[in-house]
Amino acid sequence: MRGATGAAVLCAVGEARPVAAQADSPVATKAIPHSGEHIPVIGLGTANDFMTRPKGAERDKLKKVVDDLLSQGCKLIDTASSYGEAESVLGDLLSDQDRAKVFLATKIEDGSRKGGLAEFRHSLKRLRYQQVDLLQLHNVENPHQDLAPFRDWKGQGLCRFVGVTTTFKGAYDAAEAVIRREKPDFFQVDYSLADRTAEKRLLPAAHDAGAAVLTALPYGHNSVFAAVRGKRVPDWAREFDATTWPEFFLKFLLGHEAVTAVIPGTTNPAHLADNVSAGRGRFPDARQRQAMIDFFTTL
To answer: What's the pTM value of the predicted model, to 2 decimals?
Structure first.
């Protein structure tokens, strides 16, 4: 399967539904392996950008970002208990939205049954939700971490899916062990053209475990944009409908068979539109992804 063309991989593994790259065409979706439910491949991350309570024009701008995301048919929004006021900010911004239009994910730091439940309930209160779609254990560090409490909360209807995340490369071994043993519904990891460490073991482990993969920091703290400053998107990128740098960088990730969705963070409606456009049209196949790697590493 790993040697198949991008189109075959995306249909057979990720269940992507590519469409013509037009501004009014729907964003592609991929399947959550453990359920078969499809979610749009472009989401929204809230680290840093949503961490303080906005007022006036700043709140209006954040509200527009959230509303624009949902109006484009996207629905995944990812936050965390540790992201300052982000959960409370989202609770406010989503208060007038149909909850069925939102796939809401949050993270807690405490993996224990008692402490984790207290932290989770606090998150639910701040989000003004009785149930989130995805609950993740943030930055898993213990290779023997048990996800039984999370599955119990799932059984109680407090969340629909459970997952783990990792941010620190020193904890990648632990994360791999947990993924392979616990087989979570979701796995979230930093992944960009500037940081492809996750490709070595973590993405294969998630693929083998049937875990949907969310990629955090898909622009690598904007390092990918710094690398191409003043440069044009190569003409051959039109083969997979990439005409802007956001499309180029996000489509690279979405072309990977294990990646389900990307979650770039922004508070700028124009940047959100750029991100959403990457979910339309074709994604690069294995040959094209290698060309993207070769291009980027020679900058």
So the answer is: 0.91
